[in-house]
Amino acid sequence: MSRANTALSLAVAAALAVALAGCQQKAKTSGPPQAGPAEVAVATITPQRLTVTTELPGRTTAYRVAEIRPQVSGIVLKRFFREGSDVKAGDQLYQIDPATYEASLASAQADVQKAEANLQAARNKASRYNDLVRNSVVSKQDFDDAQASLKQNEAQVAAAKAAYNLARISLDYTRVYAPISGRIGKSAVTEGALVTANQATALATVQQFDPIYVDVTQTATQLMRLRDDMASGRIRPAEPGKIPVTLFLNAAENPYPQRGELQFSDVTVDPGTSSVQLRAVFPNPNQDLLPGLFVRAQVEQGVADGAITVPQAAVSRGPDGGARVWVVGDGNKATLRPIKTERAVGNAWLVSEGLTAGERIVVEGLQKLKPGAEVKPVPAPSTVAALPASGQPASAQPSQPAPKAP
Fold first, then answer.
1. Half-sphere exposure of 304 (CA within 13 A, CB side)
2. Most buried residue, 30, 193, 214, 223, by CB count within 10 Å?
3. Sorting pLDDT into bands at 50, 70 and 90, what band is 9?
């Protein structure tokens, strides 16, 4: 190779080295592109009128229950009803052999007639002695004896009439009637069975289903909290003097078509469960509800005006278990703020302290946030920011508060 070619090769290599060094230096000085503010989904706090409801488990109970027991002893001659049918108050259910009671009634009637005859004789004697004692024909002692005999015979008549009434009542008791209207269950006896007065085993049971009771329980803590909220004015009754109740059967999503009303709450707390029993009454015209059904009762306990709710997805928990939310303030700076939640309301928390109307909270993208960092807020999707509709009942479940509300 000639000396000229060698010099040319060295010049080209030097030029390439200088160009490569320049590129490397430019890459070092430029670095990666700077990242912008984190994009997060936010929702605006809007106070609303919220119906405070509590969903409680319970069971249905018959409105009235009558256990049919005989009042007299004897042999059952006939049964007049079909098991599982509806009966009306006053319908005859059984006939007990009345023969001995008819005889007793006849004997009691004869005793009344005998006592009345003796009374008439004593009355006549006392009347005659009353005239004779004035003329001193009979002694005062004989007159007093006649008056005493009259009183005794009057008492005997009264006793005989009482015995007659008792015998008549016993005869009436041989016909066993339905004391209430309702559906009668199976019969414990058949024709020819011997029954005794006031026996422990009921002949049959009649239950009234329309209306029907629903018994539910609520913790004493929840009840006291509700009373405090009502006393402070934060919650007011939905209807003065009325507490509506909606019923759900087992896992059914659609409510029972008839709405009920809370009738009373017990005056004592169960020491074993620290709960109070509530009883609601529901119309049951088609007798769709039977006693013993497990149901869910949604009790409308009041209305909160200006209630603030936040989606559960926006709430995080601190080391102490306290609820916190990210609030986007001036300059789109995100800050972590503690709040006080009361209860779960559907997919949201009911907030009592920590937030005001118009503030923006982060509901999506919480993992991107750092205290004081600037963010890029965008409206949250409706599926995430959905809150209870204003004025509509929202199901609160304080009986099953899985997350602890501080």
1. 26
2. 214
3. low
Rounded Cα distance between 349 and 346, Å, is: 8
Sheet holding 74-79, edge to edge: 175-177, 92-96, 74-79, 194-195
> Do 158 and 197 belong to one domain?
no
**For residue 300, what are its two tokens?**
């409308």
Asked if 327 and 337 count as a contact pair (C-beta separation under 8 A), the reply is yes
Say if 401 falls within a structural domain. no
Q: For position 311, which CATH number holds?
A: 2.40.30.170
How many folded domains does the chain comprise? 3
Residue 190, Cβ density class (10 Å: 0-12 exposed, 13-18 middle, ≥19 buried): exposed
Tell whether 188 and 288 lie within a shared domain.
no
Same structural domain, 74 and 194: yes
- Separation CA 186–CA 170 (nearest Å): 26
Q: What is the pLDDT of residues 27-58, one digit of tens each?
A: 444 445 555 788 888 988 888 888 777 888 89
The pTM of the full predicted model, rounded to 2 decimals, is 0.66
